[in-house]
Write a structure and sequence with these properties.
mainly alpha, single chain, 214 residues, Tetracycline Repressor, domain 2, elongated, Arc Repressor Mutant, subunit A
């Protein structure tokens, strides 16, 4: 059914699609050229639209990068919160978390490149944004660790906050290796093998000996 021309949802839907095209193009451009090396004109060209149309939706490339962060980081936080509510055993939840990280890179390498190079490792970006939006991911993983500790799945003396930093640190370094191609992987099987090794390494250091998590 064709929507009436005066339907107010028509322009908003069209606008939303255009905005998504801009963000997708910007993600690719930022990944290839770096944030500082990219121009709004490059983003417009990659999106296949007029230069001025990009400015209709965003004031500058800083605002575009902020939108990529807000939307995709929000998806990540939602996933962590969902994982925190999952009653599955600790090992299974850690395996899901590792898979999420690795699969996001495998399926969206440009996005992960931007998230690593232009956001998580950019003091300039983090200084201009609310640090709490980043730290909430540590809170979510800490909550999973505390619950596992209370259930006897990880050692009682575990400092859950410290371990949340260790887990995220390991993930960030591995993802950085993928992004820089110093940790080259060229098949789904290779990524799956990485997941198994990461889960094993993380759990052997923190789970209670003899528990099902080990």
């Amino acid at each position: 059914m064709v929507e009436p021309a005066d339907n107010p949802t028509v322009p908003s839907r069209r606008s939303a699609r255009t905005r998504e095209r801009i963000l997708a193009a910007a993600t690719e451009v930022f990944a290839r050229r770096g944030f500082h090396g990219a121009r709004v004109a490059d983003i417009a060209e990659a999106a296949g639209m007029a230069y001025g149309l990009v400015y209709h939706h965003f004031r500058n490339k800083e605002e575009i990068l902020a939108a990529i962060f807000a939307e995709r980081w929000g998806d990540y936080v939602d996933y962590l919160n969902e994982l925190g509510r999952n009653p599955a055993p600790f090992r299974e939840r850690i395996a899901k978390l590792v898979h999420f990280w690795v699969e996001t890179y495998r399926s969206e390498p440009h996005l992960m490149t931007v998230m690593i190079n232009e956001i998580s490792r950019s003091y300039e970006f983090l200084d201009s944004h609310d640090l709490g939006t980043v730290l909430v991911t540590f809170d979510a993983i800490e909550g999973i660790l505390v619950e596992a500790r209370d259930r006897g799945e990880v050692r009682a003396e575990l400092d859950a906050r410290l371990m949340s930093y260790a887990i995220i640190g390991v993930a960030e370094m591995v993802l950085t290796g993928y992004v820089m191609d110093t940790l080259h992987r060229d098949s789904r099987e290779a990524f799956a093998a990485d997941e198994r090794q990461l889960v094993s390494m993380l759990l052997e250091g923190i789970c209670t000996p003899g528990s099902p998590a080990c």
